[in-house]
Predict the structure.
Amino acid sequence: MKVKRKQRNSKMCFICGLDNPYGVKAQFYVMEDNSVVTLFKFKKEHQSYPERVHGGIITAMLDELGLRAFWIDKDDELGVTMTLETKYRKPIPYDVILKGRAKVIMSNSKFIKSEAEILDMNGNVLANATIKYLRMENNQVTENADMHEEMCYLIEDDIKEIS
């Protein structure tokens, strides 16, 4: 599937923050079907049991994916997670390339609902979630942060297609 454009990364977000030494540093792509996709690796520091990623960190990635899908059209607005139901399908290892994908399934003036999933490179679903967000203006979520300053990185690359 073709990539339409790339989304910005933040400084310190645990999932997308490029300055966070403990983070995933995931980068996100807007696809031609209006989904968002990331190719990423969890690290050994993200483990629960040996060779397995902690469930809370898996859920954090699904949460990020769900809101990133909303940001395809509304990157100047935030959403605060209200509910998130995660289904863990298979153990997720670290140090392997994984694919995350999400799409908005409902959006109105107050709420956003997304579906997100993490897959292995063979297309097997490892975990998925349905997430509901309350739409909010930036200054309602954080009074002192400049979101344009925080979401300051746009790392161009030559990825034009992700299967």
